[in-house]
């Protein structure tokens, strides 16, 4: 059995062959850049007005209005001292402009502009290059393209970017007791829910499940199912059948498919019997069947691999240190991820923590991590992982 840190390190140290592709800016959201992007020009590339109002030259109480400039006007315009031009937000500033005055602070009469405020030099002018300088590095490879990143890339005039391809992910659930939701069930059967939870967790973080299937606890069916799916996948997720029971065939079936074990069993709760292996550039996680174990293992161990495979510079979920809203005692030696809810800067640990229960995870939005037995009073700062 290895520690959580050792398991995370093993995932982090995997050499991964990544592929890249050129995508339209419209389709780039959620990918990680494989190229560096530098600014091809100063941004903004010309001095422009931050307000609707008047560009004025010199500092006076009144000016002669000599013209108008609208946003998008590309002509060269110039002011003499004592002159003003009507100007609109985003329009190019005429040369010799001292400041822009908001129209609310002025009165206009017979082409004479009266100013009701003390003008300070440079006010309401957005200077060339004050957001980005020509040649400045905007994004390093590995940057996750967010909506704001898409906006910034577009404002640099780029309509295509080179990104890392996402892994092809497939899911196999195993277990004789499982039947699909929607069918009527008999005593002794339960509804298969892990593959649905895993698929939606994939989607939530920008990944796709290409295919999923269910296989009964039959060694040769599990072995041939793994062979077929592994062949087509970059990352294969299995659920169930990875513990020590007589019908837990997954580990042996992986071995017989040429998968090399990188770790099996982590000193953690839930998700102790997690398996991680690889075959060439393909990775396999066999997740414990208990629903909360399978999803917790996804958040803590699978997600960082998927992110690294996709070229991410930073992996894992956001962590916070915030006060707990109630006292709590935890007795077991195994480091634990507890289902919890973060609200107004405090965190509450939820009831129904068993690995077999998904209810508290469905009600929560976080995991509280304790690295061993703890007795914490209300208000104690605890480590929280947002899920
Ligand atoms: N003798 C031991 N027994 C168990 C140990 C152990 O160390 N020694 N570990 C326990 C722990 S911890 C876990 S976690 C589970 C993991 O077992 P498996 O990965 O082999 O999972 P299964 O036995 O197939 O199923 C466990 C549980 O989860 C339900 N399940 C399975 N798949 C799904 C699914 N797709 N959707 C919903 N629910 C699912 C299944 O019915 C079982 O109730 O082993 C312990 N045992
Ligand atoms: O590790 Mo198991 O996931 O505790 O139930």
Automatic annotation (TrEMBL):
Pathway: Cofactor biosynthesis; molybdopterin biosynthesis
Domain MoaB/Mog: 170-308
Keyword Transmembrane among UniProt keywords: no
Catalyzed chemical reaction(s): adenylyl-molybdopterin + molybdate = Mo-molybdopterin + AMP + H(+)
Task of the protein: Catalyzes the insertion of molybdate into adenylated molybdopterin with the concomitant release of AMP.
Assigned protein family: Belongs to the MoeA family.
Annotated protein name in UniProt: Molybdopterin molybdenumtransferase
Biological source species: Rhodohalobacter sulfatireducens
């Amino acid at each position: 059995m290895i520690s959580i840190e050792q398991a995370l390190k093993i995932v982090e140290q995997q050499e991964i062959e990544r592929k890249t592709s050129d995508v339209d800016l419209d389709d780039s959201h959620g990918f990680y850049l494989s190229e560096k992007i530098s600014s091809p020009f100063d941004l903004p590339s010309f001095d422009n007005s931050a307000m609707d109002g008047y560009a004025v030259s010199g500092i006076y109480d009144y000016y002669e209005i000599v013209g108008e400039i609208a946003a998008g006007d590309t002509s060269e315009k110039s002011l003499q001292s004592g002159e003003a031009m009507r100007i609109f937000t985003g329009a190019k500033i005429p040369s010799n402009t001292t400041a822009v005055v908001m129209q609310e602070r002025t009165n206009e009469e017979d082409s004479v502009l009266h100013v009701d405020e003390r003008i300070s030099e440079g006010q309401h002018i957005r200077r060339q290059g004050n957001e980005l300088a020509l040649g400045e590095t905007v994004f390093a490879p590995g940057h996750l393209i967010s909506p704001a990143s898409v906006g910034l890339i577009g404002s640099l005039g780029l309509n295509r970017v080179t990104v890392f391809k996402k892994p092809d992910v497939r899911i196999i659930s195993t277990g004789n007791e499982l039947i699909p939701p929607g069918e009527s069930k008999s005593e002794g059967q339960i509804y298969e829910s892990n593959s649905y939870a895993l698929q939606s967790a994939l989607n939530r973080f920008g990944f796709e499940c290409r295919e999923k299937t269910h296989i009964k606890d039959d060694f040769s069916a599990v072995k041939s199912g793994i062979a077929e799916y592994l062949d087509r996948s970059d990352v294969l997720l299995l659920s169930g059948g990875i513990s020590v029971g007589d019908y837990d065939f997954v580990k042996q079936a992986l071995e017989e498919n040429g998968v090399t074990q990188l770790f099996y069993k982590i000193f953690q709760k839930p998700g102790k019997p997690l398996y991680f292996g690889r075959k060439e550039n393909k990775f396999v996680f066999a997740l414990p069947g208990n629903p909360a174990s399978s999803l917790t293992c996804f958040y803590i161990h699978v997600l960082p691999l998927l992110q690294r495979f996709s070229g991410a510079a930073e992996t894992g979920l956001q962590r916070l240190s915030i006060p707990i809203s109630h006292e709590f005692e935890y007795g077991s030696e195994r480091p634990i991820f507890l289902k919890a809810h973060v609200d107004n800067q405090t965190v509450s640990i939820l009831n129904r923590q068993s690995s077999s229960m998904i209810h508290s995870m469905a009600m929560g939005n976080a995991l509280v991590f304790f690295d061993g037995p703890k007795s914490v009073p209300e208000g104690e700062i605890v480590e929280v992982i947002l899920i």
